[in-house]
Amino acid sequence: MPVKKIQVGQVWKQDGTGDSFLVTKIYNEALTSFAVLRKTGSESEPPMRIKIAQTGGAANLPGFSYTQQSDDF
């Protein structure tokens, strides 16, 4: 689900597993933006790096849904 801007501190849910991930860092590499996600409640697991998809003024993390827009966060 796209949002206007992906920010540090947002919580996203992985579509396949339903696990929640916290955005811990946003950075640019060449012409692409990446978000670093860490699984909530499991800080020992390595972080995930996800390419941010920009479409028509909205941002999205492919394979993830923004949890603040649903009732189950």
Topology of helices and strands:
Blueprint: E1 11-14, E2 20-29, E3 32-39, E4 48-51, E5 53-55, E6 58-60, E7 64-66
Antiparallel strand pairs: 1-2, 1-7, 2-3, 3-4, 5-6
Question: Can you tell me about this structure?
Answer:
This protein has 73 residues and is an all-beta fold. It has one domain. Strand 3 and strand 4 form a beta hairpin. The protein is globular and about 35 Å long.
Mean pLDDT: 88
Number of domains: 1
Side-by-side strand order of the widest sheet:
4-3-2-1-7
Question: Structural class of the secondary structure composition?
Answer: mainly beta
The coarse silhouette is globular
Q: Tell me about the biggest sheet? A: 5 strands, antiparallel
**What is the CA–CA distance across the termini?**
15 Å
Strand tally is 7
Please give the share of residues in helix.
under 10%
Q: Can you tell me the residue ranges where pLDDT is under 50 for at least 5 consecutive residues? A: none
Strand content: over 45%
List keywords for this structure.
mainly beta; 73 residues; five-stranded antiparallel β-sheet; single chain
What's the quick description here?
The protein has 73 residues and is mainly β. The chain contains no helices and 7 strands. The protein starts with 10 loop residues before the first strand and ends in a 7-residue tail after the last strand.
